[in-house]
Amino acid sequence: MKNSVVTPNEFEEQLSQLQEKFSLLERRLTLKANEVVFTMTVSHRKEIDELRDEVFYLRDELKKMKKERRQDYLGKVAQQAKRRSVG
After folding, report:
1. Assign residue 6 a region: left if phi > 0, alpha if psi is -120 to 50, beta otherwise?
2. How far, in Å, are 21, 29, 30, 82 from residue 35 at the CA level?
3. How open is the CA angle 16-20-22, to the nearest 5 degrees?
4. Which H or E run includes 40?
5. In angstroms, what CA-CA distances link 34 with 6, 25, 45?
6. What is the pTM of this model?
7. How many C-beta atoms lie closer than 10 Å to residue 61's C-beta?
């Protein structure tokens, strides 16, 4: 059997290396998490912009329909008034 006694210096060096590896892993994990959040944010922003555009389009269509209905109604009222005055 091989003697597996570790000197205090070796222990400190290995511990330091392990701490560096954990620090690197933590930085990589943080970077990856930030990338995921950024990607999700961009995606959600795009969806929000599309929904906003759709709401604006629907609002404009509704205004157009209301205007057309109002014009149709006023046309009918004018026709009825014309028939009454002629008759």
Report:
1. beta
2. 21, 10, 9, 70
3. 115
4. helix 8-86
5. 40, 14, 16
6. 0.60
7. 10
- pLDDT by residue (tens digit) across 2-58? 668 889 999 999 999 999 999 999 999 999 999 999 999 999 999 999 999 999 999
Eight-state DSSP code of residue 87 = -
pLDDT score at 2: 63
pLDDT at 87: 59
Q: Which residues, including other chains, have CB under 8 Å from residue 14's CB and lie 6 or more apart?
A: 6
Longest CA span, the chain: 124
What b-and-e string marks burial along 22-41, b requiring 16 or more CB atoms within 10 Å of the CB?
A: eeeeeeeeeeeeeeeeeeee
Q: What are the start-end ranges of the E strands in the chain? A: none
pLDDT at residue 83 in the model: 84
